[in-house]
Amino acid sequence: MLDSDHAVYEAYFTRSLFQLLSGAGWKRLTAFRVDGEGVLLGGAPARYKAQTAFVPWQDITSVVVWQQRMAGPSMDYIGVHRRTGAPPLPGMNAKLRPDQTAQLAPHVEHELFLASRPINLWRLDPQGLQAAVDTFAPGIPVLVYEQQDAR
Questions:
Q1: From CA 15, how far away is CA 30, in angstroms rounded?
Q2: What pLDDT is recorded for position 151?
Q3: CB 71 within 8 Å of CB 47
């Protein structure tokens, strides 16, 4: 019998003074979680409750790690492709239009951009992520998108 509790993948934001001053307190904030119910995309620490989104497995078609190149260091993101018609998600990018997301990351579909979070102030463990997805949603692929041309 599989012990699925050990397969849960959970990453937390690094605690910071900004988190304390923004009103989020000193508690551990989940940045990203994969469990038997689905995927939790944590909101930014300053707006954690308003931006956190849960996506059930029945709405997910793939989990995607992608990168946005910028003038300085690039930023890694993680997100989920969702089935057509899935309800909108809250988040820092929720109000961006397709033309805006195409400017920011031309290699990423608009809906994926909206259902993604930066891997910032926390670390992704690719093996832990893959193990959790394989355990809870064996038919769901974990994909990596690479941006070929920097703007």
A1: 11
A2: 43
A3: no
